[in-house]
Write a structure and sequence with these properties.
Length: 354
């Protein structure tokens, strides 16, 4: 009887991403605050399905139990039936009223099979809400490129221009109107909650506060939470790191020291380079998604397309375009050689200064 009465009151928020929209900060705050959340608000951020090989406490294990992506290799992924039962037991044991499941890996769900299995997992919840943060496509692409260049396990070596062609093939992901429609079709009874990822729109510029506002709660500690999760390197340091990836096969230790040294240089010297796109390239890239974005804002937000360049941005990117290719190459080469010198001094690493 308790179980049936309890399940009648349960609600789930499924946070599906996108990547590069503050997901890591949200996930780690929820995980570190899970005792307060359950005690004060009866909100459960479950241990079930948590995978944190990179120190980010997300429910990738739940998503990976439904589909087996390349990034799941080497990780201990629990079978779906076990995940389902453990999630139910944990929810009942903690007497939660609300459950939050968060993983940007859910964004990879496209076929009917994945959605059908996910429905089985979520049938234990009476009410379902699906949260997704959307970031303007050019900004998402730049941030995503920086991430994969920085990551140890990927060692991306292709140029930004080459990666742009790949991103233009991700219509299933970056066509946001179609993405939301796909999830709405898969879960017609659920509430889809799209949010625009723009710090200017968040309370105090804080994405965690924005996420908590969706839940209808206020947590003062969120204002003081130091977001140290998954920081970004500068554009200059990313160009340097790409060159290092291209020329050397660093160990994890060497890679970590290299990244930390680049962060140090960023703090001390900054970066005059703050865009990978030229302005014409950025305009062309956004034009590819213009019609979709117009439908997105009209149908989901009731406004005109907000994913457009402002006059301030155009002026800024025009200034960036005045930095010559020759100057950029010199900045990259200078920092690159300093990193190699640092690595040789830090440890006996067999790198040759060319």
């Amino acid at each position: 009887m308790f179980r049936e009465e309890y399940l009648d009151k349960k609600k789930v928020y499924l946070h599906i991403g996108l990547s590069k929209t503050g997901t890591s900060a949200i996930q780690n705050f929820l995980y570190k605050s899970k005792k307060t959340l359950i005690k004060k608000y009866k909100i459960l951020y479950p241990d079930t399905g948590i995978l944190a090989p990179d120190g980010i406490f997300a429910h990738h294990g739940i998503a990976f139990s439904i589909y087996k992506p390349e990034e799941a290799k080497g990780l201990k992924v629990t079978e779906f039936e076990t995940i389902k039962e453990c999630l139910l037991k944990e929810s009942i044991a903690k007497k939660s009223k609300i459950c939050i499941i968060s993983s940007e890996a859910f964004m990879h769900f496209r076929d009917k099979h994945c959605f059908e299995i996910l429905k089985i997992l979520l049938e234990q919840f009476l009410e379902k809400c699906i949260i997704v943060y959307l970031r303007r496509q050019d900004l998402w692409h730049e941030s995503s490129y920086s991430q994969v260049v920085k990551d140890f396990g990927i060692r991306l070596t292709c140029s930004f221009k080459e990666s742009t062609q790949h991103s233009l093939t991700l219509n299933w992901l970056l066509n946001y109107n179609s993405l939301l429609s796909r999830w709405q079709q898969a879960f017609p009874e659920s509430k889809i909650i799209p949010r625009i990822y723009d710090r200017k729109l968040f309370p105090d510029g804080n994405v965690i506060l924005d996420f908590l506002s969706i839940l209808g709660i206020e947590m003062p500690e969120a204002r003081d939470y130091k977001v140290e999760t998954n920081p970004s390197l500068s554009h200059l340091s990313i160009l340097v790191m790409r060159k290092i990836n291209e020329k050397f096969n660093l160990t994890r230790e060497e890679h970590g020291k290299c990244i930390q040294y680049l962060f140090k240089l960023d703090r001390e010297e900054g970066s005059p380079i703050r865009s990978f796109f030229t302005l014409p390239e950025r305009i062309e890239f956004l034009e590819h998604f213009r019609e979709s974005n117009e439908r997105l804002f009209r149908e989901w937000f009731g406004t005109e397309n907000q994913f457009v360049l402002s006059e301030e941005e155009i002026k800024f990117y025009e200034e960036q375009d005045r930095i010559s290719r020759k100057e950029i190459e010199k900045l990259v080469e200078d920092r690159y050689r300093r990193v190699l010198t640092f690595l040789k001094e830090e440890k006996d690493i067999k790198v040759e200064l060319i």
